[in-house]
Amino acid sequence: MGGHAKTDAVNSGSKDAPTEAEFKKRDANWPVVLFYIHVYILGTYGIYVTFTSASWPTILFTALLTLLGMLGVTVGVHRLWAHRTFTATVPLRVFLMLCQTLAGQGTIYSRVQAHRLHHAKFQEDDDPYYSKQSFMYAQLHGNLLKYSRQQEQLLLTVDMSDMENDGIVMFQKRYYVLLYIGLNVLLPVNTPFQYFGETLGVSTFVGFWLRNLIVLNVGNLVNSAHFIWSIHKGFKPTDSNSIFFITKSFWPQFHYLLPYDYQSGEFGDYASGTGTTMIRIFAALDMAKNLRTVSSVAVRNGLTLAVETKRPIVECIEEQVKLEQNALPANHYLNREKFM
């Protein structure tokens, strides 16, 4: 009898254990789904309101907040916090934290954690942004679903010690709801209504819904842009992706292998985008320091070393980057033509 009871207990336990499919299943995050539905419908109507009813002060103010939100996502979350492409002073980190809150995409902590998992599992099934699927899966679908139980476990393995030691990031995480209401709702809606003479309807459609429509879609490109600008081997008659390293064009291939280069833009550009320019301006103001980059010389030398030694390309390039670090002047970002 004891043996049968033990067997029944084991069988019962195995029935309760989730299958692999259940372990990887992602359910819809219905509050987010409903929010996105409203954003797309009301934000689209906001375009009509912008051209027919909104005043110029409202349009310019909303455009400014939109640009600041995009700056918080690209320069803040992506380049500063997720990839540590440079270090920032406390005032700059506070500024970028406020800008990121304007984007309304969740806390810096959660976005960085998810993006680091995205890089670690790029082109794998566990990537929360479906880098193996399609642009729409990465741009929209992945943001509408909860994490699977497997992804939740993988998120716990992501090293977030630098975020946990950043008081500004943790402050935002703790008080995010209040910051969101103040910066992402009241500021963009109340300012045109209170000071520009707009109706509450125009202020809401333009200042909140249209702005969120733009910022959410631009911000999501951080995880989906590789589908737009990516060129894989199968698309060209070549047996090597080395051309991506030599020219440092076709951003995704370069960025996903060497993500710490501050000059890698989010939208297919390298060294010439708005985010890169802003980082250089912050550096000139002595607010951004230790700008990390990979010179063309280091790339060529690393490729040569990889061919000669048959070692991994990234390992060889990073070795060359370390060798040239001492040769780069502190203000190399001011003369990128010479030092890049």
What would you note in describing this structure?
There is one protein chain. With 340 residues, the protein is mainly alpha-helical. The protein has two domains: 25-224, no CATH class; 227-340, no CATH class. The protein contains 19 helices and two strands. The chain has helices spanning 2-16, 20-24, 30-52, 56-82, 90-103, 108-120, 135-139, 149-157, 161-164, 167-174, 176-195, 200-224, 226-229, 242-247, 251-257, 274-284, 296-309, 313-325, 336-339, and strands at 87-88, 288-289. A two-stranded antiparallel ribbon has the order 1-2. It is globular, with a radius of gyration of 23 Å. The termini are far apart. Residues 9-14 and 231-252 have low confidence and may be disordered.
How would you sum up this structure in a few lines?
This protein has helices at 2-16, 20-24, 30-52, 56-82, 90-103, 108-120, 135-139, 149-157, 161-164, 167-174, 176-195, 200-224, 226-229, 242-247, 251-257, 274-284, 296-309, 313-325, 336-339; strands spanning 87-88, 288-289. It is an all-alpha fold. GO terms for molecular function: iron ion binding; stearoyl-CoA 9-desaturase activity.
